[in-house]
Structure formats: structure tokens, C-alpha cells
TrEMBL record, chain A:
Pfam families: SBP_bac_1 (PF01547). Residues 1-27 form the signal peptide. InterPro entries: SBP (IPR006059). One of its GO terms (cellular component) is ATP-binding cassette (ABC) transporter complex, substrate-binding subunit-containing. GO terms for biological process: maltodextrin transmembrane transport; maltose transport. Residues 24-55 are annotated as: Disordered. PROSITE patterns: PROKAR_LIPOPROTEIN (PS51257). This is Extracellular solute-binding protein. It comes from Lawsonibacter faecis. Keywords: Signal, Transport. One of its GO terms (molecular function) is maltose binding. Belongs to the bacterial solute-binding protein 1 family. Residues 30-55 have a biased composition (Low complexity).
Length: 477, 297
């Protein structure tokens, strides 16, 4: 038994030493109170916490700090469930392992659910008392989840000080979740095709006009005029990006009364340009594959506008494709109102219906995660997202990822519209297919989509966060 | 004079009564719990802004119903559904009948091999085969275009997207009709055929004058179950086209799925579901009526 305790303690110290080394600062001194009820102090008869029998462990974090020497739940055994959706088991296992190495009295049961099941099972589980104490959040499900979330017990100002975009998550002076990573679209290009076309780094386009010329050079047709290699393809759906590119013209996506606005000049310019690239420039056609991401990986498309997660998808599914990224072009060489929208990878939620003890442990895990640069870096690397935490934004390993590095110069010029309900993207998808494939008039398609979305939004509690954007004052009226 | 001992009816024994009562009760409870109560809940929910995931239940009156009947997308979906169900059912029956007749004939050898082959698609998981068909329909690497030497974008061309969904559905389901019809053919009275043959009836006449009329109950069974099933189809749409291009391949059940599990608008989805429920119930009733009349004649 003594040997087990010793082994656990040594493991905890080793892990924390490694983690603290990743942090910006190995702070000591005054520490924030741990999320443990004050009346539950550890006793010598309770399970050993490393801090009680060993040398004090270093405190993690700078503004948001985590003191691993503070016992959790008074050192008494406690069980909690941690739910997440399929696809990141190793990350959550690592988080749980690192946390329980410090607090062996906490027993975390990780529960994995497929994506679709997750969003029906989780809210129903949260309605009762047996739901998970802590769970993974996606801001697209904000409307269904917010009623079950307990606010973080970390001061909002501390979160704002360390995490980009935290201000956009403040609700009535409280934060229920924020972003640990920011994901947006970057232009992926095939390095070999780029070189074969005689292009160099100097040809990387900054404007859409330059981009169209490059796309033409990358397009290859056979003698009969059949497309062999597309210079640029958006087949299979570009709705997620169309919903970001109108910002380049200073056009917000939502009005001040939280209605969507699609039927405007900016959106028309964006869609017409996409259409012209196919029909006028001939850089691709609508029958040249149905999934531009896969087609890029398969080597039939030279450029593809993809979100950060595509970095890992390409690396895993198409390891022989040599690619790099450049920032999405803008209408002119000037820095636009915003290059694109971003969406955050969210931190975890705390179940307000869980017992007070479980909530306290969940809050402690949140603090452990937010103060811990090492584990956040793992999450950002795994999802290829730009770190929201300021201390990680110059991390060499993260900046080695092409889709992250190209954002570094202008990350403040990306806007978060808010937790958009699915109806927005769903209806824009329909609208684009009507325009691109069914030949529907653009004005009519935009008007129909705008009406359909606003009909749905009238039944939802959606609030645009565009007014929180740093450069909101530059938007068109 | 002693009265003869009354024979005990085994169906009225105490243990039999208890067993029957238990089984019937269990079935009633099952149907009430999983069919009757949900139907009433759906009907009740259609008058509310209802999202059980966040505990929302706000009374709306007839708003959801008004929206159903004024929605272009709903009527388009219903039109698509009627077309889809009619075509899929006709092909299922005709193809099933043709292949069952071929297998029933004396000319075909290794019949059990064909029966297995035809039935295999029916027992394969729909989602899995739908993903395989998605590759088959791909305009760049798809097998279908290569076989036909065409350049059709099956899933994104509004002229072919519904055809693609129908091809998958018919391929998946025709084997069921073959097996059921073949079973029906094997149970037909052979003496009628022998008599017809003696009277000089040819193969086509025997099929038309004997097989078809005698198989009518089986065919009606397939038609009714097919229509009910096809009015509830949404998985092929979800996997292949997501209702697109645009809304060209929206079916009623896919619209309901989208409203309920994508937009979490369970109230409106309930109103849509109830309309579909009434439609299917009327259709089933009509089919039974037609079937009953034909049996009388």
C-alpha cells in the first residue's frame, strides 16, 4: 500500500513537473482558493494527496492559477462522470489521467457518445440529478445547454485577461464556457502543384483578384477541354465560409435586433465571385467531384478553402499530399473589417444540477485545464486550432502547423458572430445549392434563405456577439 | 341417472386464462406505452413551442398547424414523397414479380443461390450501403458513370438526384418482394395450372389469368407495407443528398427529422408528423378497403 502511494506521488510530481515546464511561468506564492468547500479540510486519515506527504508542487498558470497542493473534496473519495463526443478519447483520457494523478481521490468516469447521440442524450441527462458533472460543450448547442450550466467560479476579468474572445461569452456578468481554441478557414494549397505551375511564395495571393489569376494557372485541362486538375474547388459545400466572407466588406451577418441579413451587396459579391470562378474563369466545374476536401487530398484540386481541422484530416487520410496554407484573400490589399468568422472550440461545462461536491470537483478540473498550458496545447494541436490563451499564441509547436501560423498576424481581425443556430448554415446550404446547381436567381434565393432563417430565429434565444468584436465600429451601418 | 361428466375445455382452464390475460395485457401495455401515448403526445405537442431538450413547452395554439399548411417546403416534400413512394412501390412489385416468376420457372437452376443473392441487399444495413452508393454515384470516381460512360452528377443534379435515391431504395428492397412473391407462388394450387396447360393455355396466359389473380392478396400486402414504409423514408436522403440540391429531394420524413433533431423544433415536427400519420392511416384504410372489395368479388 505504501509502495502504491509512493508510486502515485512520484507519478504526480513527474507529470506536474512536465506540465509546469510548458507553462509561461512557474508561479508560486499566493494562490487562488481551490474549489473545495471550506468545511471539508483533509485529515491525516484520508487518502493521501501528494501535497500532504511530498514537497509542495508548483502552482500552474499566470492570471488564472491552479494550486495542485490544495486537496479536492477534502481529500475524500468522489466519483464524477465526464462526457464528451467521439473522436478525442485520448485527449480526455490524458486530461483525466493528469488530474487524477494529482488527486487520486477523484474517480473520473469518461463517457463517450457519438456526435448525434451526444446532443440528445446530454441535455436529457442534465435535466436529472444523475447527469455528468462535467462535459464537453459545442457552442452550436448553446441554446439547448445554457439552462443546465453553472457559471465558472473563476473571475470573468481573469478569463478575459488570458483568453481571446472570452468577452463574447459573458452572460449577465458570468461565463459558463469560453474558447480554448479558435478555428477558422484558411486556404490550403498543394505545394507540388504550386511548384509545377511555376509559382513561388511571392505568388501567394493577398486579394481575390490575385487569387483568381493563381487559380487559373493551377487549372489543367486536357486537349478536349476536360478538366484534369481544378485550380480551386468548393464542391460539396462552402456555406460555412460564405457565412464569413461578407465580413470582408464590412457587412455584419446579423442586425442589431438579432435577425440575419443575407440579401445585401456584400453577400451578393461573395456568391457571384464564387460562381464566376467556375463559369467565367473555368477553374473548376460543379461535376468535378462532390467533396472538394477529399478531392484536394486525392490530388485533383490545387486549392481548397478549409477549416483548421482539415490539417489533421489531410495528414491522416492523405499523408502523401504535400500542402501548405495561406490566409484567406481579401477584396483589396487593405486589411478588411474582418478576414473571416471564427468558431471556438469550447471549454467544458459544469452541470448545475450535479451535487455541490461534484460541481466543486468539476470547477476544479476547469481551473486545472485553464491554468495548464500543457494540456491546452495538446487539445489545440489535436484539433489544429489557434490557441485562445495568450501565453500559447507564440508557441513554436503550434505555429509549426500551417493553418495556425497564417492566422498569427491577424487573429484579432477574425470575428465571432455568436453561437449560431444550425438553421443559419442549413438554409445557406440550400440557398447556395439552389444558385449553383438549380440555377435559381441569386436575389430570390437570398431573400428566401433570409426569411427561412429569421422565421426559425424568432423561436430561438439567439444573441449576436458581433457588437463585441474589437473593430465593430468599422462595420457598415 | 348420472349426468355425463362435463369435459373440461382446455382453453378455459385457469392457467390458460391467466396466461392469455398476461400475454394480452403485456401487449396492450406495450402498444399503449410505445404507440398510443406517443401519438397523443405528438398531437398535444403540435400546439406548443416544444423543445424537450431544454424543457421548453410554450403554448402556441394553431401556429404550428398554420405553418404546416402554408409551408412551400412541406408541400414540396409531400409531393416528392408521393412520387417516391409510388415509383419505388411499382418497381419493387414489378421487379419482384418478374424475378419471382423467373425463379419459379423450371428453366432456372441453382434457385437457392439466386434467392440468397436477391435477398442479400435487404439484410444489409441501410446506412452502410447508402454510403457505398454515395461513392458509386460520385461523378469523378463513381462506378455508375464509368459503367454507363456518362458524366452525370447524380446527387447534385436536380434531374437525377431523386432517381439516385430511388435506385438505391429499389436495389435494397426488391429482394423482399421476390421472396414473398415466390412463397406465394409455391402455395398456388398446381391442379389449376395443370388444367390450364391441358386446355392449351400458354405461359403468358397462365401468368395473366392464374398467377396474377391468385397472387393478388400477396401483391396487395407488399403494396400496402411498401407504401407505409416509403412514406417514412429518410435515411437514404440523409446520407446521399441531405435533401438537395436545394430542396429537390426533401421527403416528408426527412423534413420531420430535420425539424426535430437538427433544429430541435419538436412542436412543428409534431404537427408535420401528425399530418403524415393521418395521410398514411387514410392510405392504409383505403388499401384495406380496396383489398376487401376485391376479396368479395
Amino acid at each position: 500500500m505504501k509502495m502504491q502511494k509512493l508510486a502515485v506521488s512520484v507519478l504526480a510530481i513527474a507529470l506536474l513537473a512536465g506540465l509546469a515546464g510548458c507553462g509561461p511561468q512557474q508561479a508560486t506564492g499566493s494562490t487562488p482558493p481551490a474549489s473545495t468547500p471550506s468545511d471539508q479540510q483533509p485529515t491525516s486519515s484520508q487518502p493521501a494527496e501528494p501535497s500532504q506527504s511530498q514537497e509542495a508542487l508548483p502552482v500552474m498558470g499566470d492570471v488564472i492559477q491552479y494550486d495542485p497542493n490544495q486537496p479536492v473534496n477534502g481529500g475524500q473519495d468522489i466519483d464524477i462522470e465526464f462526457w464528451y463526443w467521439t473522436g478525442a478519447a485520448n485527449l480526455f483520457q490524458a486530461l483525466a489521467d493528469q488530474y487524477t494523478a494529482i488527486h487520486p481521490n477523484v474517480h473520473i468516469t469518461l463517457v463517450e457518445n457519438p456526435w448525434d447521440d451526444y446532443w440528445t442524450k446530454l441535455p436529457l441527462a442534465l435535466q436529472g440529478k444523475d447527469g455528468p458533472a462535467i462535459f464537453n460543450v459545442h457552442n452550436g448547442q448553446h441554446d439547448n445547454l445554457i439552462g443546465y450550466l453553472a457559471p465558472y467560479d473563476i473571475p470573468v476579468d481573469d478569463l478575459k485577461a488570458e483568453f481571446v474572445g472570452a468577452s463574447g461569452h459573458v452572460i449577465d456578468g458570468k461565463i459558463y464556457y469560453t474558447d480554448y481554441g479558435l478555428m477558422t478557414a484558411t486556404m490550403y494549397y498543394n505545394v507540388d502543384m504550386w511548384a509545377a505551375a511555376g509559382l513561388t511564395d511571392a505568388d501567394i495571393p493577398k486579394t481575390w483578384d490575385e487569387f483568381r489569376e493563381v487559380a487559373k494557372k493551377l487549372t489543367i485541362r486536357d486537349d478536349a477541354g476536360n478538366l484534369v486538375q481544378a485550380g480551386f474547388s468548393y464542391n460539396g459545400g462552402i456555406q460555412g465560409d460564405v457565412l464569413g466572407m461578407q465580413y470582408q466588406y464590412g457587412q455584419d451577418l446579423f442586425t442589431s435586433d438579432n435577425k440575419v441579413t443575407l440579401n445585401n451587396d456584400a453577400m451578393k459579391s461573395v456568391i457571384q465571385r464564387l460562381k464566376d470562378m467556375y463559369l467565367v474563369d473555368g477553374v473548376c466545374d460543379y461535376n468535378f467531384g462532390n467533396n472538394s476536401g477529399d478531392n484536394f487530398g486525392q490530388g485533383s484540386v490545387a486549392m481548397y478553402l478549409g477549416w483548421g481541422f482539415m490539417t489533421n484530416v489531410l495528414a491522416q487520410n492523405f499523408p502523401d499530399t504535400h500542402f501548405a496554407c495561406f490566409e484567406i484573400p481579401a477584396p483589396t490589399a487593405e486589411v478588411p473589417y474582418a478576414y473571416h468568422r471564427y468558431n471556438g472550440e469550447s471549454t467544458f461545462g459544469v452541470n448545475k444540477n450535479a451535487s455541490a461536491e461534484q460541481q466543486a470537483v468539476a470547477q476544479d478540473i476547469i481551473r486545472f485545464f485553464l491554468a495548464n498550458d500543457g494540456i491546452q496545447k495538446e487539445f489545440c494541436l489535436a484539433n489544429a486550432v489557434f490557441p485562445a490563451k495568450a501565453s500559447l499564441q507564440s508557441d513554436a509547436d503550434l505555429l509549426a502547423i500551417p493553418s495556425i501560423s497564417v492566422l498569427a498576424d491577424h487573429i484579432d481581425r477574425y470575428i465571432w458572430p455568436g453561437a449560431m443556430p444550425s438553421t443559419v448554415e442549413d438554409n445557406v446550404k440550400i440557398m447556395l445549392e439552389d444558385v449553383f446547381y438549380n440555377g435559381k436567381d441569386l436575389d430570390a434565393a437570398l431573400a428566401d434563405a433570409e426569411k427561412a432563417i429569421n422565421d426559425d430565429l424568432a423561436n430561438l434565444d439567439f444573441t449576436s456577439q458581433e457588437s463585441m468584436y474589437k473593430y465593430a465600429g468599422e462595420a457598415l451601418d | 341417472m348420472n349426468r355425463p361428466a362435463r369435459l373440461k375445455n382446455p382453453l378455459r382452464s385457469r392457467s390458460e386464462v391467466i396466461l392469455r390475460g398476461t400475454v394480452v395485457c403485456a401487449l396492450v401495455i406495450f402498444f399503449v406505452t410505445f404507440f398510443v401515448i406517443p401519438i397523443f403526445m405528438v398531437f398535444g405537442g403540435s400546439f406548443f413551442r416544444w423543445n424537450p431538450l431544454k424543457g421548453q413547452l410554450n403554448f402556441l395554439g394553431l401556429d404550428n398547424w398554420k405553418r404546416v399548411f402554408t409551408s412551400d417546403l412541406f408541400w414540396r416534400s409531400m409531393g416528392n414523397t408521393v412520387f417516391f413512394a409510388a415509383v419505388a412501390t411499382v418497381f419493387r412489385v414489378v421487379l419482384g414479380l418478374a424475378l419471382a416468376s423467373a425463379l419459379y420457372s423450371r428453366l432456372i437452376k441453382h434457385k437457392s443461390v439466386y434467392r440468397v443473392l436477391y435477398y442479400l441487399p435487404t439484410i444489409t444495413p441501410l446506412v452502410a450501403v447508402a454510403f457505398v452508393w454515395k461513392f458509386i454515384f460520385d461523378p469523378r470516381i463513381g462506378l455508375l458513370d464509368q459503367l454507363l460512360n456518362t458524366n452525370i452528377n447524380w446527387l447534385f443534379d436536380s434531374r437525377y438526384a431523386m432517381v439516385a435515391i430511388l435506385i438505391l431504395t429499389i436495389w435494397k428492397d426488391f429482394g423482399y418482394a421476390v421472396i414473398i412473391l415466390l412463397g406465394g407462388m409455391y402455395s398456388l394450387p398446381q391442379d389449376c395450372y395443370e388444367a390450364a396447360e391441358v386446355d392449351g393455355a400458354g405461359a403468358w396466359q397462365r401468368f395473366r389469368r392464374l398467377t396474377l389473380p391468385l397472387l393478388k392478396p400477396t401483391i396487395l400486402f407488399i403494396v400496402i407495407t411498401s407504401l407505409i414504409s416509403y412514406f417514412q423514408t429518410y435515411i437514404p436522403v440523409m446520407v446521399l443528398t441531405q435533401g438537395g440540391p436545394g430542396t429537390q429531394t426533401y421527403l416528408a420524413s426527412y423534413l420531420i427529422y430535420e425539424e426535430a433533431f437538427s433544429k430541435y423544433n419538436f412542436g412543428y415536427a409534431s404537427a408535420l408528423s401528425f399530418v403524415l400519420f393521418i395521410f398514411i392511416a387514410l392510405l392504409t384504410g383505403l388499401s384495406f378497403k380496396v383489398s376487401g372489395k376485391s376479396d368479395d368479388t
